[in-house]
């Protein structure tokens, strides 16, 4: 693992200028990279898209569907029993099936989190500049350890990125090799410096 310093820029030209400034500070091109980070939820990490394998608002939908399905089946059984004299046993089975289906649908929908604050910022008042989510934009990252790193590389990288206008300058661990951050995960928490 390498120690990596990264900063966010609004424009690609600003990121490219920061790369030139880092090279001027003694960092080799193979220890730097420029890349774009998409907004939260748009990283296409899972085969169905997105950053999470389930919908935060639908986490309890399966429990609601099971409860609603049971209640719907019971209601369908009662209605089917009353109609069984007219429709026969097939009417009873159909009423139970329709009741179970309708109940499970109603239960699942009623169990979704309509008040989900998943996309809203949370301010807990505790030193908001130390840990945060990674914002979308152009990112420049530089490896600050290794044989090819200049003296005082960490401080030099932070100073250079900030002087070029980088926002959210962070320190991370990862594999930055041959001009590419090989194990970058946009969902990781940012440790600002």
TrEMBL record:
This is Glycine zipper domain-containing protein. It comes from the Bacteria. The lineage of its organism: Bacteria, Pseudomonadati, Pseudomonadota, Gammaproteobacteria, Pseudomonadales. Residues 116-125 have a biased composition (Acidic residues). Residues 112-131 are annotated as: Disordered. It comes from Halopseudomonas laoshanensis.
């Amino acid at each position: 693992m390498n120690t990596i310093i990264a900063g966010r820029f609004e424009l690609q030209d600003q990121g490219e200028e920061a790369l030139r400034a880092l090279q001027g500070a003694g960092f080799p091109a193979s220890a730097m990279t420029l890349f774009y980070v998409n907004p939260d939820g748009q990283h296409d990490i899972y085969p169905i898209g997105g950053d999470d394998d389930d919908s935060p608002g639908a986490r309890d939908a399966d429990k609601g569907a099971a409860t609603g399905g049971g209640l719907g089946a019971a209601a369908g059984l009662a209605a089917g029993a009353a109609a069984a004299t007219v429709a026969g046993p097939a009417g009873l089975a159909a009423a139970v099936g329709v009741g179970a289906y309708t109940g499970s649908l109603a239960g699942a929908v009623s169990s979704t989190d309509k008040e989900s604050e998943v996309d809203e910022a949370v301010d807990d008042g505790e030193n908001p500049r130390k840990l945060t989510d990674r914002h979308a934009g152009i990112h420049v990252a530089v490896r600050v350890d290794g044989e090819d790193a200049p003296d005082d590389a960490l401080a030099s990288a932070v100073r250079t990125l900030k002087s070029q206008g980088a926002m959210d300058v962070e320190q991370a661990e990862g594999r930055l090799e041959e001009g590419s951050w090989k194990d970058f995960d946009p969902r990781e928490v940012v440790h600002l410096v």
